[in-house]
Amino acid sequence: MRPTRTASRLTVAGTAAAAAALLAATLSPTPAAAQDSAAPTAVSVRDVVVDRDGSRHVRYDSAYRGLPVLGGDFVVHLAPDGTRERTDRAVAGSLAVPSTAPKVAAPRAADLAATALRSANPGELLSKLTARPQLVVDALHGAPALAWRTNATAKDSLGNPVARTVLTDALTGRQIDAWDSIETVTGDGRSLYSGTVPLETTGSGSAYQLKDASRGGTYTGDAQNKTDGCILGICWSRAPAVVFTDTDNHWGTGADTDRATAAVDAQYGTDQTWDYYRQVHGRNGIAGDGKGSYNRVHYGSKYNNAFWDDSCFCMTYGDGDGTTFGPLVALDVAGHEMSHGVTSKTAALTYSGESGGLNEATSDIFGTLVEFHAANASDPGDWLIGEEIVKPGFGKAALRFMDRPSKDGSSADCWSSGVGNLDVHYSSGVANHFAYLLAEGSGPKVIGGVQHDGTTCDGSTLTGIGKDALGRIWYRALTVYMTSSTKYAGARTATLSAAKDLYGAGSAEYAAVAAAWSAVSVN
Fold it and tell me: Which of 188, 343, 423, 433 is buried deepest, with most CB atoms within 10 A?
């Protein structure tokens, strides 16, 4: 946690008397009436900020005949010598309403808010639903009006909290406004691999949780160096995922000595993967249902792996042994592993033989496209997988090389009848090579500061159609045409069908797909 404040914030209790005195000197036209308990409008201090030069900024809330006024807040700005510089008000004019007696009863307002919460979560079976109305004066939506402000809360089918604040006209029952009330707050984190990154977090009392309500409630927790108890896929115990919290919303230090630093990378990777699929492919979450996954970091002791697990709908990251790998929370690794979740919800490619190679390649392709889409200067896009996490003890610059997969010593550049007998991480080389050639073309070039080869198996010369077209074609092929048993010949057919759908059978993109497959010996 890093202090970044440039001004101090005084406690309200310690400055109430001073703030009242400030009111008398600064408010107009009737400061005395504003402090008179018998007057219809009263004010109270919400916050006081004191700058380093002594300037003060006093924030007030208003009430009308004891009812909170939405839009009744204002800030008085004082120079170091106490002179009023200006007052900023949420709304101008009177805050009065003709009557504070509602015609719509509180239970009716609660029912309307509950209905609004259900409507905002279609298809969800909500449980533990409560709605608590509060009578207020609404000055934010035009002339001041008596209203019910109702906070409706519930749990969704996964046990995640959902909440909505509904503003209802207390005279007519008309809905004035409504908004989600589990709010995200923008903080930042110093990561291991991606520099300082923005993070959407959730306020929890005086602290913050590393949980993002804007992305389906995705969160990151500490596995506390524990492991799952599983045999043959049957688990009787799970490593925990204790949600990270922070007091100032500045997470991590950029060093792995701070346990929150790896959490920053993991949460950032989740955010970027979510955004890639939503912004590029219109997919709302890994499963397409708007529900977030979660991350566990610090799994096991010196654990040299990261994995996606459908059974918990979660990502798990080891810390590495420090010699072969560092913490396995790099951006392309996150995109890779979470893309296994997308595959499992779509084509469900069998994780063996050529189908398994296509499964792994799908994750390498989308993990790479997530990295490019993030456009992070600290980790620029390239066609290497895991280049950030490898240590000198690994002996190579990355886990895999999509421009010429055989550079890792084990992966296949070109299809042959024996490709399906390779480990799926190595048989993936054929599709990885195809994807690189389709996007970038053949021949040497520098991408993201890294030299890439771009060789072909048949000696052909190719012109790439770009990463966006590759992503669109592969995503459509995966989600529309591939099945659990698709092999390389089927992948060629699926991607040609996708290219035809997207660009036409006579398009340059269609021809490029055919040429790129031929260039890796899939004819």
Answer: 433
